[in-house]
């Protein structure tokens, strides 16, 4: 007879396997997705995010170039442009997130 405070597990714990959660599938896609495929899929889902990232990188690069050449006015302008591009990227991420949430609702 077991003692009342003791609980016996139903199945042994296997740390090499992911836990089984009812109604949850850890992988949406049946095949393994590489970096290139995932990048292309994410870019198609929300094309404004990569555009914002490229704009941010371009403004930063040109701003640093102008700073190095001693063009402080142009450098300041490009740093402000970088901030605007970062804001655009954040807004694009939030809009894409809201759109995908609304699309996934039944």
UniProtKB/TrEMBL annotation:
InterPro entries: Hypoxia_induced_domain, RCF1. Its main location: mitochondrion. GO terms for biological process: mitochondrial respirasome assembly. The keyword Secreted does not apply. It is found in: Mitochondrion membrane. Residues 20-106 form the HIG1 domain. GO terms for cellular component: mitochondrial membrane. PROSITE patterns: HIG1. The chain crosses the membrane at residues 48-67, 83-102. Keywords: Membrane, Transmembrane, Transmembrane helix. PANTHER family: HIG1 DOMAIN FAMILY MEMBER 2A (PTHR12297:SF18), HYPOXIA-INDUCBILE GENE 1 HIG1 -RELATED (PTHR12297). This is HIG1 domain-containing protein.
């Amino acid at each position: 007879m077991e003692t009342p405070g003791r609980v016996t597990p139903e199945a042994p714990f296997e740390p090499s396997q992911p836990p089984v959660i009812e109604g949850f599938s850890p992988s949406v896609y049946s095949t393994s997705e590489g970096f290139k495929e995932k990048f292309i899929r994410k870019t198609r889902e929300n094309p404004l995010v990569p555009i914002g990232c490229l704009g941010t990188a371009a403004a930063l690069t040109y701003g640093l170039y102008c700073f190095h050449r001693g063009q402080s006015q142009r450098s300041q302008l490009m740093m402000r442009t970088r901030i605007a591009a970062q804001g655009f990227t954040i807004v694009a991420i939030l809009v894409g997130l809201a759109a995908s949430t609304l699309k996934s609702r039944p």
